[in-house]
Amino acid sequence: MAIAETFAPHTPAAMPLRSFGTAPAYDTPAMADLVAWVDEIAALTQPAAIHWVGGSRAENDALLRTLVDEGKLIKLNPEWRPGSYLARSHPSDVARTESRTFIASEKEEDAGPTNNWEDPAEARAQIGELFEGSMRGRTMYVVPFSMGPVGGALSHIGVQVTDSAYAVASIGIMTRVGDAVTRQIAEGAPWVRTVHSVGAPLAPGQTDVEWPCNDNKYIVHFPETLEVYSFGSGYGGNAILAKKCFALRIASVIARDEGWLAEHMLLIRVVSPEGKAYHVAGAFPSACGKTNLAMLRPTIPGWSVETLGDDIAWIRPGEDGRLRAINPEAGFFGVAPGTGESTNVTAVETLWGNTIFTNVALRPDGDVWWEGLTDEAPAELIDWEGNAWTPDSGRPAAHPNSRFTVPAAQCPQIADDWESPDGVPLDVILFGGRRATNVPLVVEATDWTHGVFLGATISSERTAAAEGTLGELRRDPFAMLPFCGYNMGDYFAHWLKVGRSLRFDRAPRVFQVNWFRRGADGRFLWPGFGDNSRVIDWIIRRIEGKVTAIESPIGRLPRIEDLNLEGADVTQADLEELFDVDPQAWQREADSTEEFFATFGAKLPPALNAELASLRYRLQKA
């Protein structure tokens, strides 16, 4: 591939015309350090070739063509889905490998009870064994990337080394990739080191498989040295290390040390009928409606929502005493099943083209389909494993955790300033989960500390995105349980510390929401989706001081008559059940919370135990 690229001169050294895949020739000590690190990884993994990714369109097109030629991607019908592709993973490689994900902090207590800890020396020995020769017969790609706009004050940069071209194409959608990042490194900017191998070396003459991976999967983070190593999986966040590994686990450590927050949160701008803008960040565990809320189309006339981010928010205190947030990602990596025109028409419209789909079904006309995309399934499909499928097959056509990777810029609701390096000022923080009982539709925290208590006590049903039993209830504080890179007791304390740095009248107001409460007959009590805007409407009127609230043992609840329910399909009886607070059920909830808090021992901030004691007192009085 003799594709040449031209680069503009830039300090510290002008870039010459260079060949496709060769290393940039910056003559600086920092660049020499980067090259030495790449050479060190190459010496360990022994690839057949090294390709430095420049980030050009021609380079990406060539990469995708090669993947199609190798049978690793299926090019979709350009008439229906231009510039789009389908990948099918190995059935053993379909989700995050949380049970094989480790934090190798110097002290075990710094990883905490919610993380798998590994001794750093043992982890490095394991890396040496697993990665030795792991890239034989493959190309090693060097991918410089930026989380957030390149050069932005809230942004951070890294480099991923990988032997997966599929991962390279995905990183190119999810981050800002290319020589502008390499220039920053050459100029001395700090960067995070990430290394990935599918763990499937090729012998001379050996034919590759469609989805190379290894049964032995292993991901380890070194918080003190800001490194990530991932082995054996080519799927999702196991391979796109900029996402959960860097943007949450490593970034949460950087954020702790620098005084900001790296959070598993959507970010939206809500615009009122009067044209006033409000900014909302929301933490929801996977498959709890986060993407739907990020692309909300309100059912209340006059309101609109602009998307800023669907999954990760980096939030920093400003000099004005407010929190400002950016979405550090450049794309959406969403769960396909359940995304349809009746649930999230914005997402469907975003996926018009330039999308990599993974583990969805293929239609006879060369387009894709998954459960929930349309009300009726097509008569014939090829399922996610490549087998013929009909509606009578008795199995899903798409894997429950099948995905789409698409540029955020294609979202029809994307805010014009979504890439502003300065971010947006936060007015509201939401915490949500998937709870059939107990948790009301919406409850307002009484203050920041109570809001941290609400975030720390989120629990949700287990989803297809994580290993485990579907439907099982699991604690997921701040929706960060799988993603916090250090002891969550210290993480709770960090949230409290950040709150103390804010002006009390400028701190975001905190609310907990639950779209998933069920009645005694098992029905969902709330219609959800676009009608969730009715809850946002009430929240905005609360922070504007236009409506009062009812004090309850668990927080402040709306008066039902203050909710804008015109045109909503919800009965008075359902509304009363949606806001019912059963003191006995909540006492059991408090007992469960006490057991959970006990796992953090002395690391749990006393303020959270005080909040729990106050909750018990209020419940007894009720």
TrEMBL record:
Cofactor: Mn(2+)
One Pfam family named in its UniProt record: PEPCK_GTP
Cofactor note: Binds 1 Mn(2+) ion per subunit.
Keywords: Cytoplasm, Decarboxylase, Gluconeogenesis, GTP-binding, Lyase, Manganese, Metal-binding, Nucleotide-binding
Sequence positions that bind substrate: 96, 235-237, 286, 401-403
Positions annotated as active site in the UniProt record: 288
Gene3D superfamilies for this protein: 3.90.228.20, Phosphoenolpyruvate Carboxykinase, domain 1, Phosphoenolpyruvate Carboxykinase, domain 2
Binding site for GTP: 287-292, 403, 434, 529-532
MF-aspect GO terms: GTP binding; manganese ion binding; phosphoenolpyruvate carboxykinase (GTP) activity
Domain Phosphoenolpyruvate carboxykinase C-terminal P-loop: residue ranges: 260-616
GO CC annotations on file: cytosol
Catalytic activity: oxaloacetate + GTP = phosphoenolpyruvate + GDP + CO2
HAMAP family xrefs: PEPCK_GTP
Described purpose of this protein according to its UniProt entry: Catalyzes the conversion of oxaloacetate (OAA) to phosphoenolpyruvate (PEP), the rate-limiting step in the metabolic pathway that produces glucose from lactate and other precursors derived from the citric acid cycle.
Record-given protein name: Phosphoenolpyruvate carboxykinase [GTP]
Lineage per the UniProt record: Bacteria, Bacillati, Actinomycetota, Actinomycetes, Micrococcales
